[in-house]
């Protein structure tokens, strides 16, 4: 099917394959069961993202990005949240790449987010504290905001030196976190924050106080009851190339029960030590395998495996492009790019299986190699945009997509040149920009202004929410502002790993 612009093709759109309501119900029930197993006190290490888990929503179509926090809301009367942050990450001003904010600010954002969901936040733990001035400043900042702060300290030989770890000179030196509810969720702004150590330290202190308490782990991926090479599990590896995570069969579970399950290397490698710590604290370990520790029920909520596999394969391709661009920018290694390519090969997919890639490259070639963008609409149509004197390709593609969604002919101008020209003058004459072309944020603001007086522009403007979930590809690495706008719109954006120019510095 062709659009009025003649710039689109039609193909089959993705299907839903995951039952979100069933997931929330089963997951909350399983956690309640685990709390009861340990005498009504459970420390739950929460891996991954509680909010905005778009990876899960992409590979499990039907999974809502805030499913996990919504699940916790069903337990809110019994739950409290503890956030862990590594003192070294505060000192290094570590950044959460997907949101482009520092870990310490992410802690504040998360506290606000939890409170907005009526979830009680018990405090913040600064882990591996050894006198870092930035950590001291952050603690003072939190305490001025009325948030309780605790310190945990480095333990020599952790995690292998079990006798020292489980002693007054190990966990015993850590601050005891005062908790009041049966379920204590320990989460963090990112990986490597010390969540497990916080949980184990609390078990030690609770045992010394005569309190029966247990530990469990919540990780959405890998999905333990899917095959090792299932695309969903391979997509997890693709998403964590920077962590060197590798999915593997849980040998402890296989030996104990004769059942094949999937875990990842870090949990499998650390399980013997973790088991020894459990035994040292309370005299016995409650678990026979890393899989036993988990409470994840996501695998039981997939009802269309074909749809889920297709979605996961697309995510693997997207991750390949993300890694390739990171390598081009010098922030990721070639080994990570090679691993991404191997995962695509393992799934039997190529870049050609992402339809917007060819559309963007073809449009670029047709315009003499200038940057071009392709956007796949919810019904499968593909719209392209090119670089012009007034607009960058990303901005042009957005306008073309909104026209298509609104049924507006390509030749109709949504924004008058007399509106665009002053913005260009402002950029070049007053703000010191060399490039007069409008970025995605600027064109959307211009469209919103025109929508106040132009009914056609208003019709296009009302289509913006329909862009969420669309796929897009750029023939060049986009500017930070264009990437951010596409992400905020909910568009899954990828780029070719090459710059528009040969300059060394790129914004």
Task: Explain this structure.
The protein has 507 residues and is an alpha/beta fold. The protein has a six-stranded parallel beta sheet, with helices on both faces. It has two domains: 20-227 and 261-301, dip2346 domain like (dip2346 fold like, Roll), CATH 3.10.630; 355-495, Domain of unknown function (DUF1846), C-terminal subdomain (Cytidine Deaminase, domain 2). The two termini are 38 Å apart. α18 (440-451) crosses α19 (455-461). The longest helix is centred in the middle third of the chain and has 24 residues, at 305-328. Residues 1-12 have low confidence and may be disordered. The protein has 20 helices and 14 strands.
Uncertain runs with pLDDT below 50, 5 residues or more? 1-12
CATH-level-2 architecture of the largest domain = Roll
Strand count: 14
Radius of gyration: 25 Å
CATH class division of the largest domain: Alpha Beta
C-alpha termini separation: 38 Å
Secondary-structure map with pairings?
Blueprint: H1 20-37, E1 42-46, H2 54-59, H3 67-73, E2 79-86, H4 87-91, E3 95-96, E4 101-102, H5 103-116, E5 120-127, H6 133-144, E6 149-151, H7 162-165, E7 183-187, H8 195-208, E8 214-218, H9 231-239, E9 247-249, H10 251-257, E10 262-264, H11 265-282, H12 290-293, H13 305-328, H14 334-347, H15 355-366, E11 372-376, E12 382-386, H16 393-406, H17 417-430, H18 440-451, H19 455-461, E13 471-474, H20 480-488, E14 492-495
Parallel strand pairs: 1-7, 1-8, 2-5, 2-7, 5-6, 13-14
Antiparallel strand pairs: 3-4, 9-10, 11-12, 11-13
Helix pairs in contact: 1-3, 8-11, 9-13, 9-14, 13-14, 16-18, 18-19
């Amino acid at each position: 099917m062709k659009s009025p612009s003649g710039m689109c093709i039609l193909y089959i759109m993705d299907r839903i394959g995951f039952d979100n309501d069933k997931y929330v119900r089963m997951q909350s029930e399983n956690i309640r069961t685990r709390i009861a197993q340990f005498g009504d006190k459970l420390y739950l290490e929460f891996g991954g993202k509680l909010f905005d888990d778009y990876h899960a929503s992409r590979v499990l179509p039907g999974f809502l990005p805030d499913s996990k926090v919504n699940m916790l809301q069903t337990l809110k009367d019994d739950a409290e949240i503890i956030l862990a942050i590594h003192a070294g990450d505060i000192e290094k001003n570590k950044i959460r790449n997907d949101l482009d904010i520092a870990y310490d600010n992410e802690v504040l954002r998360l506290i606000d987010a939890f409170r907005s969901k009526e979830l009680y936040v018990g405090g913040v733990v600064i882990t591996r504290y050894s006198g870092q001035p930035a950590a001291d400043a952050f603690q003072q900042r939190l305490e001025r905001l009325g948030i309780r702060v605790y310190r945990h300290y480095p333990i020599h030989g952790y995690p292998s030196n079990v006798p020292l770890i489980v002693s007054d000179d190990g966990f015993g030196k850590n601050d005891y976190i005062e908790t009041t509810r049966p379920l204590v969720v320990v989460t963090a702004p990112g990986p490597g924050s010390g969540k497990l150590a916080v949980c184990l330290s609390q078990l030690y202190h609770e045992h010394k106080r005569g309190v029966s308490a247990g530990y469990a782990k919540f990780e959405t991926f890998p999905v333990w009851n899917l095959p090792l090479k299932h695309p969903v599990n391979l997509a997890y590896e693709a998403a964590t190339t920077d962590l060197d995570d590798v999915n593997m069969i849980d040998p402890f579970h296989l030996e104990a029960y004769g059942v094949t399950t999937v875990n990842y290397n870090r949990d499998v490698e650390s399980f013997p030590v973790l088991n020894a710590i459990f035994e040292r604290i309370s005299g016995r370990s409650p678990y026979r395998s890393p899989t036993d520790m988990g409470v994840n029920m996501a695998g039981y909520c997939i009802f269309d495996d074909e749809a889920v596999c297709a979605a996961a394969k697309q995510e693997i391709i997207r991750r390949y492009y993300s890694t390739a661009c990171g390598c081009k920018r010098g922030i990721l290694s070639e080994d990570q790019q090679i691993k991404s390519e191997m995962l695509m090969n393992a799934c039997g997919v190529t870049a050609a299986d992402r339809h917007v890639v060819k559309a963007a490259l073809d449009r670029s070639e047709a315009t003499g190699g200038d940057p071009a963008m392709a956007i796949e609409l919810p019904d499968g149509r593909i719209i392209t945009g090119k670089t012009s004197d007034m607009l960058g390709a990303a901005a042009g593609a957005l306008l073309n997509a909104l026209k298509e969604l609104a049924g507006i002919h390509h030749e109709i101008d949504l924004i008058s040149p007399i509106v665009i020209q002053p913005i260009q003058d402002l950029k070049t004459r007053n703000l010191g920009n060399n490039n007069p072309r409008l970025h995605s944020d600027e064109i959307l603001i211009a469209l919103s202004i025109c929508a106040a007086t132009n009914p056609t522009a208003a019709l296009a403007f009302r289509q913006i929410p329909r862009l969420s979930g669309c796929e897009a590809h750029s023939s060049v690495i986009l500017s930070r502002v264009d990437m951010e706008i596409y992400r905020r719109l909910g568009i899954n954006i990828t780029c070719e790993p090459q710059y528009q120019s040969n300059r060394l510095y790129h914004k």
